[in-house]
């Protein structure tokens, strides 16, 4: 069997917002980000969770148009052990596609595919349950996507620049 090439995640950096001061703090790894996201509603994030940081310190990153921001739904389950959740941005910046890389390298794109996978490889059933997979893509913040004066249906450019008010 030919080993398929695993595509690269489109996300360049992870950040979390403090519930008290609303500053954005960078999260160094995807793993840590996924842990925060897993319980975000019950356990919102604040600056004090980071060693030696308080709300008085300047934020790590500004919410602006120097980069494209996408916002995740809270409480997306942490991917099961030995699986990876990846997000791929479409070329026209219209949408992100969610897929999971399974422990044997297979890439799956829907809950139906997960079900089929577990039927085909029942040995994974004790480690992997279908409820732990979430194919809901994060939201692309439209205001942050550059567009020309003809409106949001016009073609989008990849290069980010300041968006002017209409
Ligand atoms: Zn804070």
TrEMBL record:
Residues 8-63 form the CW-type domain. SMART domains: MBD. InterPro entries: DNA-bd_dom_sf, Methyl_CpG_DNA-bd, Znf_CW. PANTHER family: METHYL-CPG BINDING PROTEIN, MBD, METHYL-CPG-BINDING DOMAIN-CONTAINING PROTEIN 1-RELATED. Residues 69-140 form the MBD domain. It comes from Dendrobium catenatum. Residues 144-166 are annotated as: Disordered. Pfam families: MBD (PF01429), zf-CW (PF07496). The keyword Zinc applies. One of its GO terms (molecular function) is zinc ion binding. Its main location: nucleus. This is Methyl-CpG-binding domain-containing protein 1. GO terms for cellular component: nucleus. Gene3D superfamilies: 3.30.40.100, Methyl-cpg-binding Protein 2, Chain A. Keywords: DNA-binding, Metal-binding, Nucleus, Transcription, Transcription regulation, Zinc, Zinc-finger. PROSITE patterns: MBD, ZF_CW. It comes from the Eukaryota. It is found in: Nucleus.
């Amino acid at each position: 069997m030919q080993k398929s090439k695993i595509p690269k995640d489109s996300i360049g950096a992870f950040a979390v917002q403090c519930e008290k001061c609303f500053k954005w703090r960078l999260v160094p790894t995807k793993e840590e980000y996924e842990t925060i996201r897993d319980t975000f509603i019950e356990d919102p994030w604040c600056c004090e969770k980071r060693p030696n940081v308080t709300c008085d310190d300047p934020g790590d990153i500004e919410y602006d148009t120097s980069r494209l921001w996408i916002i995740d739904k809270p409480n997306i389950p942490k991917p099961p052990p030995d699986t990876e959740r990846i997000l791929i941005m479409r070329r026209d910046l219209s949408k992100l596609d969610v897929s999971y890389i399974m422990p044997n390298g297979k890439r799956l794109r829907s809950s139906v595919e997960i079900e089929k996978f577990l039927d085909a490889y029942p040995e994974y059933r004790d480690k992997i349950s279908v409820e732990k997979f979430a194919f809901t893509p994060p939201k692309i913040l439209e205001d942050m996507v550059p567009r020309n004066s003809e409106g949001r249906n016009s073609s989008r450019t990849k290069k980010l620049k300041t968006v002017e008010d209409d």
